[in-house]
Amino acid sequence: MKKILGITLLAMAAMSSGTSHAATNVTGNFDVKITLTSQCSLTLPAASKDVVFTYTSFQAAQANSTGGDFSVACTKSLPYTINIDQATVTDAAVDLQYILTMPAVNNTGTGATQNFNVSGKILGGQGGTCNAATCDNAASANKTRTLTIGF
After folding, report:
1. Lateral strand order in the sheet of 63-64
2. Greatest CA separation found in the chain?
3. Of 9, 17, 42, 30, whose CA–CA distance to 109 is shortest?
């Protein structure tokens, strides 16, 4: 038994006398660099983008428009402007003057879609030009307006 105990102690001593190696970690830091190009987009929904008027010659009250919806999505915090090419126009086909009103010209992007509306009015008392019971300006040379988003 003494021999077994001695051998066991000797084996344990040999095992404990070996050099132990602890795991070592090495770390380093790095940056993630991003280049963001700011942008805006303009959406004109087909169903409600057009500014629409219904007017009767010489009516006393002004006619207010329907439609004129659009939306803008710009990079968050990006300043942008909304402009229309011409706000007061006399239509070339029906000879009625209308006035378009824009939303706030200076805006700031939110990173989400922002909804706006171009509204308009035709002042009362105008006769217009029409050679039939009703006319429209479908063939008008100046019915198209341009909306510009500047950023």
Report:
1. 63-64, 119-122, 97-101, 88-90
2. 130
3. 42
What are the pLDDT digits (tens) for 76-95?
999 999 999 999 999 999 99
Q: How far apart are CA 12 and CA 112, in angstroms?
A: 71
Query: Structure tokens of 110?
Result: 């939110």
- Residue matched to tokens 């402007």: 81
Question: Taken in order 58, 59, 60, 66, is the CA torsion positive or negative?
Answer: negative
pTM of the model: 0.78
